[in-house]
Design brief:
Layout: E1 7-15, E2 18-26
Antiparallel strand pairs: 1-2
C-alpha cells in the first residue's frame, strides 16, 4: 500500500480505449 501525504497526485482513468490522466490534490 502507498501512504498518502499532502500533495499532488496523478492518476489514470481507463475506459475501453480511452485513457485520461487526471491531477488530484490531496490535503490531509
Amino acid at each position: 500500500t502507498i501512504s498518502l501525504s499532502s500533495g499532488v497526485y496523478y492518476y489514470q482513468l481507463k475506459a475501453g480505449d480511452h485513457v485520461q490522466t487526471k491531477k488530484m490534490i490531496f490535503i490531509k
